[in-house]
Structures are given as structure tokens and as C-alpha cells.
Design goal:
Blueprint: H1 2-26, E1 46-55, H2 61-73, E2 82-85, E3 94-98, H3 103-107, E4 129-138, E5 167-175, E6 213-215, H4 231-244, E7 249-257, E8 264-266, H5 267-279, E9 284-287, E10 291-293, H6 302-314, E11 318-322, H7 328-336, E12 351-353, E13 364-370, E14 388-391, E15 394-396, E16 399-403, E17 413-415, H8 417-431, H9 444-447, E18 455-456, H10 458-462, E19 470-473
Parallel strand pairs: 5-7, 5-9, 6-7, 9-11, 11-13, 13-14, 14-19
Antiparallel strand pairs: 1-3, 1-4, 2-3, 4-8, 10-12, 15-16, 16-17, 18-19
Helix pairs in contact: 4-8
């Protein structure tokens, strides 16, 4: 009888140990709020069979040969490699390489995601190139509209105040495109002065008929917004609206389509669009998009960081980007990697790029949506990374929303840090003097401008969600 009791006790102990082990595995281990180093959830989504190569010098035959030899030793069939360069004859030394399993070359080890030599490297040599997956970069709204965006059913009432003699600020929108109906207001849009509609490359930038911008998704000049929610079009409307309230500057929108009908873009096309914007004299880039990762300033992002905070800043270009919204798949991955549910919106723990390339006094301004005391519970916050909140027009169903400008009839509302970003972009571009866009550009040149009419919220500051509790009011 005693032996049976002892056996039963042992069985109970084994069951308890097994349950504790299962709980430990499902929670990602005792990691607190930080992901484990070897977490498979650190890398965000990326294009399969592709790798973006950042050359540190113009590549010659010897460099290409060394890279291919290294790839072959990693199991890549180099005979199947195809190479894509930015269509716009860019001076940016980047290429997109395609081949079966090519993506494994960049993500097989954490160190490889951007490193070209050193421990765990691809063995190519640090003086040669950096490698990164072709990350997928999304512009999803916080909530999809019940009906798809229909330009034919939307009537706009846009007025243009006289701005004779005002400085012109060029704002490049890298997004899903623009409603054809809005392109009728041509005075609002940048027009390439060196190009004519003749199926030729008049300005010798390798793009034919890039009159108002370029479609980097389909590699043509069709800028039509084909996203379900009209994301890029709404971004443009919020920016235009800010120029209606201030007489300081005139606006030219440069439309660069980087995201497809599913509101998805990728890092390679976005970098090509950034180069186009810089070469065509953009003053501001609006980046209402991003991607989550559990790396913090690790090698996969070092070159992207350099392109924005060094390359664009050196050319006097301000980069305004979104703090990011709640997204189901990245949130699920983060929780599996050990980040608790209460910290999913905290950019200090759950990193969203390019927002998390900001923080210091560089050329990146990060925006989110707020009420009088807190950031929207569906959007990201950080007293270090988030520079400015935008006060929402109304709250509905747990979402902080903005009223879409220039819509006749029933008011329409949208929510998301994308639109807060556009409002900040428009406010800065409309009010800040043109001489603020000097190199090396710093965000403090703009955030101290009286015309922005920045308010301060003690509660926002106390809650440590926005730097200094600073916000502006949407008009």
C-alpha cells in the first residue's frame, strides 16, 4: 500500500514538473520584458528569395565575384541570381539580389543581418558591403472602412488662399499613391521641370515621363491610389489642410508610390524613392509607415539609419514618420518572444522602424495621436522616441480619430498614427521658414518654431508617453 502511495506521489510530481515546463516554454522563458537573444521572432516579415546589398564602394567585378563565392559557400545557386538596381539611376549604392533561398543569406544568423565580416559573418570583408533582408513595410489603418475607398463617390471642396511671393516647400509622400481626382488641383503638386510627356527620359534619370513623381511598385508613372482605404490620398489631404491655415509657405506635393493595393511596400523600393526625393529637391519626406522588430539599433538597420539620419540630413531633408499602431501579427510574435501585453505599445521595448531611429536630435520627427492625458491605447508611445502628439478630433469605440478634410456631406473619420504624422508634416511644412532646411538638419530647428503652436500636457509628460508632453491641435 505504501509503495502504491509512493508511486502515486511520484506521478503527481512528474505531472507538476511537466506543467511548469510547458508554461515556461509557452511564455518564452523568464525573460521579463526583453526578448531572448536567439528568439526567432526578432526578424520582421521580408520578401522571400531576396536580399538588399548596401555597397560601401562602387562594386566592381572582383567585389561581385567575392560576394558570389561567399553565397555559393552558403548554399546559394549563384547561377540563378538576378540583380535589380533602383530604376532612377540613383547615386545610392544599393542593389536587390534575387535567387532561390537568397533571403537565408541575410537572416541565417543575427550577426549576418547586415554584417559583412567579423564573428559569424558572411566572410565578404567589411570594406565591401552590408546585407539585409528586403523587409516588408506596411501602412495598415487601425480599422478598415466598411466600404472601399471610392474616388468617384467623394466630392472635395478645396480652396486655395493667395500665397504670392511665399516660399515653396516640397513634401514627398512615400505611400500608396494619390486619388486621380485630386491631381486636378495641379497647383498643389510638384511637377518635374525637366520632363515632358513624350515617352522619353528628358531629364536623364532613367525614368520616362516622371512628370509628377514615380510608381516604384510597378516601375511606371501611374500614381493612382489603389489601396482599399485610400491611405496615401488621406495623407495628402491632411497635409494640404495645414497649408490652408497658414500663409507662410506654398505647397508642392511630390507623389512617390511605394506601397501596393494591400498597403505593403518593401525596403528596397522605399530607399529608391528616398533617393529620388532627395535628387529632386524635396524638403520633407512623409513616412506614414513602418515595421516592427525586436532588434534595437542592430546591424540590420545600421545602413538604413545612416541613409536617413546622415544622407538625408546632409541634404537638408526632414523625415517625419509614424510612431506605429497596434498590429496583430507583430504583437503576437512579440508576446511569444517575452514582451508582456502591457508593453506592446512601448517603443522602448517593442521597436518600430524607422521611428526607433529617432530619439536623438537628428532629422527624424515621430508623431502619434493623443487626448489631453494619454496616447491612443492603440498607438505606440515613448518619452524618448515620440516627439509630438496630435490631439484627436473625437473618440469612438476606443479609437482616437481625425476628421478627414474637404469631405462634403457626412463627416468621415480615420484613426492611426499615419494621419497624426501627416498633420505634423503639414504643420511644419506650412509654418517653418525655408531657411530651417539647412544641413546638417536637426529636428530642434523645427520643434522650437512658434508657428507650430505646440502645447504642453502635464499628464502626457507624467505618463512618460510623449517627450515633454508636447502636442498640437488638429484644425
Amino acid at each position: 500500500m505504501k509503495r502504491r502511495n509512493l508511486l502515486l506521489l511520484l506521478i503527481i510530481i512528474l505531472i507538476i514538473l511537466l506543467l511548469l515546463l510547458l508554461r515556461h516554454c509557452n511564455s518564452g522563458g523568464d525573460t521579463g520584458n526583453k526578448p531572448t537573444i536567439d528568439s526567432p521572432y526578432k526578424i520582421p516579415d521580408y520578401r522571400k528569395d531576396q536580399v538588399v546589398i548596401f555597397f560601401k564602394q562602387p562594386p566592381n567585378a572582383a567585389i561581385i565575384s567575392r560576394i558570389k563565392q561567399s553565397m555559393a559557400s552558403s548554399g546559394i545557386d549563384t547561377s540563378k541570381i538576378t540583380v535589380q538596381k533602383c530604376a532612377n539611376c540613383t547615386d545610392m549604392q544599393i542593389e536587390l539580389w534575387n535567387a532561390p533561398h537568397m533571403d537565408t543569406y541575410a537572416v541565417s544568423e543575427p550577426v549576418k543581418g547586415g554584417s559583412s565580416s567579423g564573428s559569424g559573418s558572411n566572410g565578404v570583408g567589411e570594406d565591401t558591403a552590408l546585407f539585409a533582408p528586403n523587409f516588408i513595410v506596411s501602412t495598415p489603418p487601425e480599422e478598415y472602412p466598411n466600404m472601399p475607398y471610392d474616388s468617384l463617390g467623394r466630392k472635395r471642396a478645396i480652396r486655395f488662399p493667395s500665397k504670392a511671393g511665399a516660399d515653396t516647400v516640397k513634401v514627398a509622400i512615400l505611400d500608396t499613391g494619390i486619388d486621380d481626382q485630386l491631381m486636378g488641383y495641379q497647383q498643389l503638386f510638384w511637377k518635374n521641370p525637366d520632363e515632358t510627356l513624350n515617352n522619353a527620359d528628358d531629364d536623364h534619370n532613367c525614368l520616362k515621363d516622371d512628370i509628377y513623381g514615380w510608381n516604384f511598385v510597378d516601375n511606371n508613372n501611374n500614381l493612382r491610389d489603389d489601396s482599399r482605404d485610400g491611405h496615401g490620398t488621406h495623407i495628402a489631404l491632411f497635409i494640404i489642410n495645414e497649408f490652408q491655415r497658414d500663409q507662410t509657405n506654398a505647397l508642392q506635393l511630390m507623389i512617390l508610390k511605394t506601397h501596393n493595393s494591400k498597403s505593403e511596400g518593401d525596403m528596397f523600393n522605399i530607399l529608391c524613392a528616398m533617393s529620388y526625393a532627395a535628387n529632386k529637391g524635396a524638403n520633407v519626406i512623409n513616412a506614414s509607415w513602418g515595421y516592427y522588430s525586436l532588434f534595437k539599433h542592430a546591424t540590420p538597420y545600421s545602413q538604413i539609419d545612416s541613409i536617413i539620419t546622415a544622407g538625408l540630413a546632409a541634404r537638408g531633408i526632414l523625415f517625419v514618420t509614424a510612431a506605429g499602431n497596434r498590429m496583430a501579427a507583430p504583437d503576437d510574435s512579440a508576446m511569444k518572444a517575452g514582451i508582456t501585453g502591457t508593453n506592446l505599445r512601448n517603443l522602448d521595448l517593442h521597436y518600430f522602424y524607422p521611428a526607433c531611429l529617432g530619439g536623438s536630435n537628428n532629422n527624424i520627427i515621430v508623431a502619434t495621436t493623443v487626448n489631453d492625458s494619454m496616447v491612443s491605447p492603440t498607438q505606440n508611445f515613448s518619452p524618448f522616441y515620440v516627439d509630438l502628439g496630435v490631439l484627436a478630433d473625437e473618440e469612438e469605440g476606443g479609437f482616437l480619430k481625425f476628421k478627414v478634410p474637404y469631405t462634403l456631406g457626412t463627416p468621415q473619420y480615420v484613426s492611426g498614427s499615419s494621419y497624426a504624422t501627416a498633420i505634423v508634416t503639414g504643420r511644419i511644412a506650412a509654418t517653418c521658414k525655408k531657411n530651417a532646411y539647412t544641413a546638417p538638419l536637426r529636428k530642434s530647428n523645427f520643434l522650437q518654431t512658434a508657428g507650430l503652436d505646440i502645447k504642453g500636457s502635464a499628464k502626457l509628460d507624467q505618463n512618460k508617453q510623449v517627450n515633454g508632453g508636447k502636442y498640437i491641435i488638429h484644425n
